[in-house]
């Protein structure tokens, strides 16, 4: 089932066209990851789909309605976004920050209702942050803070959550913790998750559907099996990848790769190897 559809999308910053004639769909109740090299338009696409930035041409429709025709509060009840760089929350407690997720449901003076309080407590519990409810955000670790921001997104009670590089600046253990939390929310709460990831193997391990971008266009979109292929990664990242299998998930993974350089890319290679996790940042 498809609820979010993007057709012939063009997005630009001033005269610089970033996303070009792009066509994709987001599978409902699945985890979709968007991969590609730096500057390829991943974050721009995410911001356009969530109406953070306008687009020049094309259609973005949710449940058959163009997102620009949706009332802001109504749209905020359907989709939440966690940006790559979160706002400064200095001086706020965890509970106060998570309560901001209830804004689309508030009326009048914006006082929290009993329902709001129950949802906030539920979001804290699900993300494992209930113990921090009365602590200041700036006293928490990076992984703890990221879980609190996810709790705020959950408090919006949206069916779809967008995350722009949710593992950035986290160590490998906290990266795994966040991705496993998102996977749990997808499986147990049936939340549709759409996230930008840099790490190819993390994308392969946790995604049901992958969209690979290059220069603002789709190179390949499909299942992990369809996208994590040598030729696709060569075009997207300019690497010659050795594809193997994850012994835990049995999904394809990049176990080694050569960096292809310049016009003579077939002859000039710099080799990198890592049999565990390869973070392919180009």
TrEMBL record:
One GO cellular component term, please give it. Answer: plasma membrane
Q: Where in the cell is it found?
A: Cell membrane
What are the UniProt keywords, alphabetically? ATP-binding, Cell membrane, Ion transport, Iron, Iron transport, Membrane, Nucleotide-binding, Transport
Source superkingdom: Bacteria
Which InterPro entries does the record associate with it? AAA+_ATPase (IPR003593), ABC_transporter-like_ATP-bd (IPR003439), ABC_transporter-like_CS (IPR017871), P-loop_NTPase (IPR027417), Siderophore_ABC-ATPase (IPR051535)
Q: Which Gene3D superfamilies match?
A: P-loop containing nucleotide triphosphate hydrolases
In the bilayer, the protein is annotated as: Peripheral membrane protein
Pfam families, per database record: ABC_tran (PF00005)
ABC transporter domain segment(s) = 4-240
Q: Which GO terms describe its molecular function?
A: ATP binding; ATP hydrolysis activity
One Gene Ontology BP term is: iron ion transport
Q: Show the CDD domains listed in the entry.
A: ABC_Iron-Siderophores_B12_Hemin (cd03214)
Name of the protein in its database record: ABC transporter ATP-binding protein
